[in-house]
Each structure stands twice: as structure tokens, then as C-alpha cells.
Amino acid sequence: MRNSLLAVACLAWSAYSLQALDNGLAKTPPMGWNSWNKIGCNVAEDSVKKAADAMVKSGMKDAGYQYIVIDDCWQVSRDEDGNIVADPQKFPSGIKALADYVHGLGLKFGIYSDAGTKTCAGRPGSRGYEFQDARTYAKWGVDYLKYDWCNTGKENAEAAYSTMRDALAKTGRPIVFSMCEWGTAKPWTWAANVGNLWRTTTDILDQWEGKGKEYGAGAITIVDMNADLADYAGPGHWNDPDMLEVGNGGMTTTEYRSHFSLWAILAAPLIAGNDLGNMQPEIAEILMNKEVIAVDQDPLGKQGRRVKHENDQDIFVKPMQDGNVAVAIVNRGKEEQTITLKWADVNFAANKSVAIRDLWQHKDLGTFTGTFAAQVPSHGTAMIRMK
Ligand code: GLA
User: Fold this and answer.
1) 160 φ, ψ to 5°?
2) Where in the chain is the domain with CATH 2.60.40.1180?
3) Which of 258, 304, 346, 368 could lock onto 265 through a cystine, CB 3.0 to 4.6 A?
4) What is the DSSP secondary structure assignment for residue 304, as one 8-state letter?
């Protein structure tokens, strides 16, 4: 009896350990660059190398950005053995050489596939080839896989993503698993042991608000879709409200600063999507604001919560490992307004004295008791750290 109980326990344990996503990766939200938002389907070896070079030269690498990820359109076919084939025109040196180049710069390398028969751009997907593709990626030196959800028919999302998770695990190579299922099957409720991050929304559009005709949404609309999911994020498993549009031209500098502040307070992956080799100083300043990045990357790994959402005023609060509290105060309205943070919003006693630092001005603002009033421009965000 005892032995059979033990056997059952062992079986249960081995089944569990096969299931658990225990790749030790993404303890803080991944940071990097992805080709899609700027280059789309025109991605090629040269542009990826340039992005990698620029990531180092611009200071992005020093600021914490690490992954260089090729999105859709690098693949064209399968060979007679079923191996995935990269576009020989666009990637003449092959993916392995490109991964080596990226690694040579001290960066990590990522790639894209899809759980269906075809990717969203109609390239070969991984359906039925999961283990073979994972082996190929590992052989090439891939460190990050973004796995999309187009052309999946009646596939079950949890099953399909679990298959690729297991395929990646079987390679023995640590590979961050980025699930891109757009939130359709509520992956936050089941994916903590499947992926390191999961998209919670439709594709981001390079605009402040509103929805696209067919799909996509502006930054603040995406925030609304992701704002109530704080309970599901943590070290190794993050909500992903999609990549950054900062620097791509569709929003004002003030709006881009808000976009970046909000991604940081939401502990979202910070995956830049702009031309890193050609950044205006104000864009570089946003993407490399180390104090805001530190909010995103805080090791406690809490996603900020929205504590106020009324009168075109949003307030998000994120507890930090050192006991500080980061706060983002957002003006969604068309006019400048004064927005008042009350200590009750952060669960502080009203008579508590708190030192406040402004993370965009890089300035200690002094000590405040009970309330803090911020003058915030239209579509702007005041980002502070309460000590
Ligand atoms: C989907 C994804 C995007 C991008 C494209 C590529 O729309 O959500 O992030 O990967 O496919 O085709």
C-alpha cells in the first residue's frame, strides 16, 4: 500500500514537473527590440544587424535592453525533411550566423513562429512541427520565441501553447516563451506555467487611443484592456500589452512618455519597435529613462494596479521591493489638469510624511503629507516614486 502510494505520488510529481514552466527566465519583464512595429514584413539580415549594433551604440543595451527579436516573414518554406527554411534573399548568411552576430555583441536573439499552419503573414507555421522547429531554434542559438495564433482553426490554445512549451523544454536550451494569443482565451488564467509572457490584447497601433477598423488599438485603449490583470503577473510570467511604439511617429512626445510610463507601471515587457539607429534625443531619453525602467524591472515583480479611473484621470500604483511605491498619474483629457493623489489611494495613513521623487524630471520634489497634486498636460503622465 505504502509503495503504491509512493508510486502514485512519484507519477503525479513527474507529471507536474513536466507541466511546470520552470525555465528560470524572465524573472523581470523582458526588454529588447522587435522588428514588427517599424519594419513589418520587410525584415532582413541587414536591418536586424543594424538594430543590434544600434542597441549597443545608443546605450539601450546598457539601459537593460537585451533581446533582438525577428518577427514574422523570415521564413519561406520547409525542405524535404520538414526543416523550416529562412528566406535566402533576405537572410543570405542564415539565421545561425545572425544569432552568432547578435550574441557577439553581448545580446540575446529571438525569433517568431505561429501555432497554426501558417503565420499571420502567411509563412509556414509550426503546427505539427513543434519539436522539430524547437530543435532547429536551439541549434541556431535562439534565446526567445514569440509564438503567434493565426490560422489555428479549432486548436485549443492551452494545448497548442503547452506543446511548444514542452518542445522548447526538450531542447535543453533556455528559451523565453512569448505567447501571442491576443488574450482571446484569457491566457492569464492558465498560462503561468506555459509561457513567460502572454499577449493580453489586440495589436498596438501607433496612436493614443481608439480601436482600428479591423483590429488593433491605441496605447491608452490597450492599457484599459490590461489594467485589471495585475493579479496574474509575476516573476517569470507577465501580462504583455504588446510592444512599444515609442519613436514611430504617430504620437506626441508627451503621449510616448505616457505610453512608456504606463508600460513600466504595468510591469509590461519593454520591447522597443522603433529605428534604434535613428532616434531623436527626446525618444532616446524616454526609452532610456533609467528611473522609469527601474520601476518596470523591480525584482518584486508586481504589476501596478489602477486605483483611480474617473474624470479623465487615471492613477496606477506599483509596490516596489524596497518598500517605495511608484505612481503614474495620467491625464486622459484634452486640457491640462491638476490631479491629486490621496494617501488613501496608496494605503498610507493621511498623516504620514513621504519624500517624493519625479522620475521624468529626475528631481526630488520634497516631502508631502496626505496628498500630492500634479499638474499634468493633456495625455501626459506624472511618474513619481514615494519613499
Ligand atoms: C500578429 C501579431 C503581431 C505580429 C504580426 C505578424 O498580428 O499580434 O504582433 O507578430 O502578427 O504578422
Assistant:
1) -65, -45
2) 305-386
3) 304
4) P
pLDDT at 6: 54
Torsions phi, psi of 271, nearest 5? -110, 100
**Quick one: pLDDT band at residue 3, thresholds 50, 70, 90?**
low
Distance CA 33, CA 274 (A): 8
Q: What is the pLDDT of residue 19?
A: 43
Tell me: the pLDDT tens digits for 362-381? 999 999 999 999 999 999 99
DSSP annotation of 259: H
Which residues does the annotation mark as catalytic? 148, 203
- Under CATH, to which class is 9-296 assigned? alpha beta
Architecture of domain 305-386: Sandwich (2.60)
Q: Please state, for a pLDDT cut of 90, what percent of the chain lies above it.
A: 94
Q: How far apart are CA 77 and CA 59, in angstroms?
A: 37
Asked if residues 68 and 55 have their Cβ atoms less than 8 Å apart, the reply is yes
Best CA proximity match to 260, nearest among 228, 229, 290 = 290
Q: Do 231 and 243 form a contact (C-beta atoms < 8 A)? A: no
Write out the residue limits of the CATH 3.20.20.70 domain(s) in the chain. 9-296
Residue list, ligand 1 pocket, CB within 6 Å = 36, 71-72, 119-121, 148, 180, 203
Closest residue (by CA) to atom 12 of ligand 1?
Answer: 120
The enclosing H or E element of 220 equals helix 219-226
